[in-house]
Amino acid sequence: MSKEENTANRPDNTAFTQQRLPAWQPMLSAGIVIPGFVIIGVAFIGIGVALFVTSQNIQVLEKDYTGIETNSSCFKCTNPRVKNCNCTINFSLDKLFEGPVFVYYGLSNYFQNYRKYGASKDAAQLTGDLAYFTEPSTSCVPYQRDAKNKPIVPCGSIANSMFNDTFKLFQIVNSGNVAVPLDGKGIAWWTDYNIKYRNPTTNPLKNAFNDTVKPIFWPRPAYELDTTNAANNGFINQDFLVWMRRSALPNFRKLYRRITEGEYAKGLPAGDYALVIGYNYPVKAFDGRKKVVFSNVSWMGGKNQFLGIAYLVIGSLCVVMSIVMLIVYAKFKFPDEE
Amino acid sequence: IHCRHERMIPWPQAAHNPNLHLDPPLKKEEERRVRANDREYNERFQYASNCIVTSKYNVLTFLPVNLFEQFQEVANTYFLFLLILQLIPQISSLPWFTTIVPLALVLSITAVKDATDDYFRHKSDNQVNNRQSQVLIPGSLQNEKWMNVRVGDIIKLENNQFVAADLLLLSSSEPHGLCYIETAELDGETNMKVRQSVPVTSALGDSNNLATFDGEVVCEPPNNKLDRFSGTLYWRDCKCVLTNQNMLLRGCVLRNTEACYGLVIFAGPDTKLMQNSGRTKFKRTSIDCLMNTLVLWIFCFLVCMGVILAVGNAVWEKEVGSLFQSYLPWDPPVDNFMFSAFLSFWSYIIILNTVVPISLYVSVEVIRLGHSYFINWDRQMFCSQCLTAAEARTTTLNEELGQVEYIFSDKTGTLTQNIMSFNKCSINGQVYGEITDPLEPKLDFTAFNPLADPEFCFYDAGLLESVKVGEPRTHDFFRLLSLCHTVMSEEKSEGELLYKAQSPDEGALVTAARNFGFVFRSRTPGTITVSELGRPVTYSLLAILDFNNIRKRMSVIVRDPQGRIRLYCKGADTLLMERLHAGSQDLMNVTSDHLNEFAGDGLRTLALASRELTEEQWEDWAESHRAADTAADLREERLAAAYEQIEQHMTLLGATAIEDKLQEGVPETIAILSLANIKIWVLTGDKQETAVNIGYSCKMLTDDMGEVFIVNGHTVQSVRQELRSVYLTLYFIVHACLTLWITAFALVISGHSLAHALEADMEAELLMTACACKAVICCRVTPMQKALVVELIKKHKKAVTLAIGDGANDVSMIKSAHIGVGISGQEGIQAVLASDYSFAQFRFLQRLLLVHGRWSYLRMCRFLCYFFYKNFAFTMVHFWFGFFCGFSAQTVYDQYFITLYNILYTSLPVLAMGIFDQDVPDRRSLEYPKLYEPGQLNLLFNKREFFICISQGIYTSLVLFFVPYAVLSHASQDTAEPLADYQTFAVTTATALVIVVSVQIALDTGYWTIINHVFVWGSLGLFFSIMLAMHSQTLFSSSPNQFHFVGSAQSTLLQPVVWLTIALATVICIVPVLAFRFLKLDLKPQLSDTVRYTQLVRQKKRKAVCFRARGGSRRSGYAFAHQEGFGELITSGKNMRLSSLALASFASRHSSSWIDTLRKKKHSHAPTPPGAASAKPL
């Protein structure tokens, strides 16, 4: 009995209770830190060089077409009263723009990242749930219902403000203008196209939109977004999906088309080109800018000078630091026990 | 609990006293009226029942009361306020669950803890309330639960029972209505105390007579003064004054008394025990206070950021937003930018609230709880003798243990064991008891003497030899020890002797004599029976010349069977030597040398002498003694003179040396603690000599000290003068000898001087002087003064104080110090109950402070630094993002990430570090006490460190925002889709954040146990798996409106650019920290770094901590510490078990006087201040 009590009171003799768990006790010794810095430095410089060189090889062509300057061909379109305005921007390439070439549109000073803007949509409606067609979420206010109290589909600020400029690219050759085929397939995220956004199963699609109205700014309802391809309509329209994936920063680019077909699949050959813009989207009111960007990509995506330079700088700093530390270490060796 | 349950017992109408009319129950009790055996009458006053409720909740009230209490915490209310803000749609920048999940978690953890605590309180309440006692219900004894005992009931108590309530002693089985109680649980004193009933009731005797007793007591209302009681008993026609001497208080134990009866005066919460156990002050650690200040600062910082962003929002809305309305119209209620800014302010308060993380408080509590368990579990703080483990009774003070600067220690029972052992003696110029061979076994007395005490230890066989050969001086020496004392013996069965000694040193001396063949068997008021070497001899006891503080000696005069009269005297050497026969100068010199030697070893010494008296001398002296004894005035002085007269011309027999056994390891512990720069003050109720003696033996005082100053003035002027001269001397010496060496000084100050020195006008001088000394000993201090000294240091030094003690007289000091430590395993538990930590031995203090305290402090500081860092790094990203999103309170991260960041992704690794981290192993912290210093200087976490860690956090947030910003704004996937969309940006930043803070915790963790590995890697794994799950198709299809991020994780984390960005951000965040730490380690290493380094390179040079042996110094080692007056008690025969009726008549002759005399003497010699528990003898 007394023995039992003895053991009952006595704390357990385990490594855990006695705080003697086996442990690894690392220390920032010179043997680890200095070589570590050298390794990080060298690795970063290596990556930096690779990134820089890759980035240098990427071609980018940017054209602002906002039409602020009066001599710009798009100046005429900045007047909000002009409807269906087209303007053309000409440019020439003095060498082959290697393919595949991607066409982006870019907006500046445009706040897709504004909190209320981002919240102004109805995700359930966009999955094709008909219940939300008639009763859009209140988060869409003031684009939940129109003046006649009819539900707006798709509701909300993001959908309402969808970018609707159009671009056509022509190569100017002696025989005239040759249209460069722009491919709009697969420019949206796979998950957006296949999961996040679904059309209602109603056939034809148009019927699902009965008793709803199109977003106020839209020229055509959602089921007629793409007149050329019936399958590319409704909520799974590629341009719509690209627009709905809102940008994190006020200056952004969004993918518009790829040039992957025909003879231009290898790239845009040197020569003169004309970009015909269907100018519909007003940005002048808020001092925005619009541009179109041609770019090709590498394994690391588009042109990205910053990353390569940052890696080079940080890598070199690490190497410098390791030398400094080596000097300090040599001078003030860790004092041995006195 | 069935306290409210009224027992409906028909109660006989007791005779009413027509003189007393009934008062209506008063709001505030001004006096208490209790009539015995009349429940009906007593119930009108609605006195508290004897049911004790220390619990706070019951099943029904738990939820509301507990929630109410929790929301009194500012932090919880703050988060509730945030929650309400989040429910306003215009403001809600984050869904409500981001706050309610952590809040609910925090509230429920606290609630569970409170519920467990309360459950144990219920259990102990029940156990106490259901104890059985015998109550006289109508006229016969019935068993009743304690909680059903009422005021006015008469209770029968039996031997060794706890007293159920505060009782008026009515009668007892012992003559004269005497009974003995032990008050250990009440005031920590383990010696027995005598209580006596008033004569009118003691005659009542047993239950038959008491059933008709209907006396009425009028007394003071309930109060917490343990040592006084005033009341009056009205019964029949007599009126008796009642004092504390008539009371049995709840918590006492009845001893050596078969049974007694008492009238319940105070019950339950009104008892003095419960009145004393008032709510303990809630102690807060300095880190707590700092943390609260910092949280307040952070809160201000939060408001500032909110204002900056709101102003930004106003400007933005005016300059940009108003133009952008075509795509983003303002809400109908928000029609101007000012209002928008106002809403934005609150929205940002919600987003940025994570800088004051709700999980901070609960994490701190969890860490402290963990540390408390480590203290409870520590086997090296387990006392195997008393089978008591250390206990952290308060879980909120652990890190303060690493910052202690002052220790206030009690002496008896704390530094010493309160066990005296007969260690050495000098007989006729010959020293016995020197230990030559430490391995020598202790002497076996059983063969020589069947009555020997088997636990007695003595190692010198020479002394036993000397007894055996019949050396007459040796025989006389032990004969004296067996005769000259006031010990009572109890012989339960033949040969099984039990000595009850007033002071443990007397017990040790009589036990020594017993083992060497001079066995004190029994005494009567007139005789002492001793078994001398097996032969029973009865001496007639002629007189006891009692001890007092001035005489410092006691003598007995006995007549042996042959008719020879002898005086045996033992006492302080200085006084005894003066009274010796002139002829023994040589022996005196030799013995004196021996005494010095003994004193040098820290032993308590007594000199022994005897004198032959002739019949005439005795007769003459007896005559003068009688005259002095019966003198009407100046009795004391006359008696002293009479004693003085006979204690002359004595022959020196020798000297004894008693070891006041120190607790194990006390000198070593004190040495280590003072190396750790902790100042130790001893506060004791003991005499100056004893205190100084212990000071030497536990190496607080050493002979190489410059000087030991003694302040014991009785008046304000003298104390002031003494203090000033001490200070001047110190000042002079320190300034004059700067070039030579700085000597340590010690201050000894007595209680009566302290009373003056603690006055407001002398406080500063005391403080200056005391703090200039290395050791301070306060002797003869009352419990209140102990607390005042602690308060003094607390008030003026801003240092962390620790008080350690074992008795009830230490309770006030334990409660007022920052940390109170109780010595457990002893009999009294008052100190333990009041303490924050308890363990069985003083030496565990070094482990508690230097190991557990140091680690706790280190861990808590590291934890806080990291915690603030990680939350700033997390939150400030929103601030930077504000400048790019129109100050719209858009979060950077996914809402689920925000919810889980503090609870799941980053909490466990830092908790593991906070609980398990060690910089150096425990052995090293004891080896290098200097490692304790950073805690005292508060170096590891202070405002500066806080700024450093939040700066690091802000830097990290800057990197975490701008690196992805710079990279992603132009980057695209390899399929050419741009990476600058919000969700990719959110996932990249969140991943980078989790990786950076994980790398940081990996750097901060110095002790990687398997648990740290599991938590760090587990948290990272958890982050990725939860993120992938949250972004999965399954969850999205279940609730499309909640999981917007579907597919983001997969798509983002497959991009090499994203990983390159994360790697870049991590390196930019971590590399400067690494470089800084490495350089700091190289250029300015801390002691702990050095120790750790040497550990690492296995240069294990053990620094032997050795203690210099101390030379002798001349001190009076006089050991005699019991109360005077017991000589008279013995000769009056009062305190003996009166089995022989023959003695009863003898005793009754003196009965009127002895108790009164005893009380008078007590009051005149050792006045105890009111309100304080009486100081413990030795």
TrEMBL record, chain A:
The keyword Ligase belongs to this UniProt entry's keyword annotation: no
Which keywords accompany this UniProt record? Answer: Membrane, Transmembrane, Transmembrane helix
Compartment list: Membrane
Q: Which residues cross the membrane?
A: 32-53, 309-330
Per its UniProt record, what InterPro entries does this chain match? Answer: CDC50/LEM3_fam
Q: What GO cellular component term, any one, is given?
A: Golgi apparatus
Q: Does the keyword Zinc apply?
A: no
Q: Which family does it belong to?
A: Belongs to the CDC50/LEM3 family.
For this protein, the record's PANTHER family field holds:
CELL CYCLE CONTROL PROTEIN 50, CELL CYCLE CONTROL PROTEIN 50B
Q: What is this protein called?
A: Cell cycle control protein
Q: Which organism is it from?
A: Gadus morhua
- The gene that this protein is the product of is tmem30b
Automatic annotation (TrEMBL), chain B:
Cofactor(s) demanded:
Mg(2+)
Show the Gene3D superfamilies listed in the entry.
Calcium-transporting ATPase, cytoplasmic domain N, Calcium-transporting ATPase, cytoplasmic transduction domain A, HAD superfamily/HAD-like
Keywords, comma-separated and alphabetical: ATP-binding, Magnesium, Membrane, Metal-binding, Nucleotide-binding, Translocase, Transmembrane, Transmembrane helix
- The UniProt annotation places Mg(2+) binding at D410, T412, D806, D810
Q: Where does ATP bind?
A: D410, K411, T412, E506, F547, K570, R604, T684, G685, D686, R780, K786, N809, D810
**Catalytic activity, reaction form:** ATP + H2O + phospholipidSide 1 = ADP + phosphate + phospholipidSide 2
Query: Where do the TM regions start and end?
Result: 294-316, 337-362, 726-749, 863-884, 896-916, 946-967, 982-1003, 1015-1036, 1056-1079
Enzyme Commission number(s) from the entry: 7.6.2.1
Keyword hit for Nucleotide-binding: yes
Q: How does it sit in the membrane?
A: Multi-pass membrane protein
Q: Where is the major localization of this protein?
A: membrane
**Family (UniProt):** Belongs to the cation transport ATPase (P-type) (TC 3.A.3) family. Type IV subfamily.
Name of the protein in question: Phospholipid-transporting ATPase
- What is the primary gene name for this protein? atp8b2
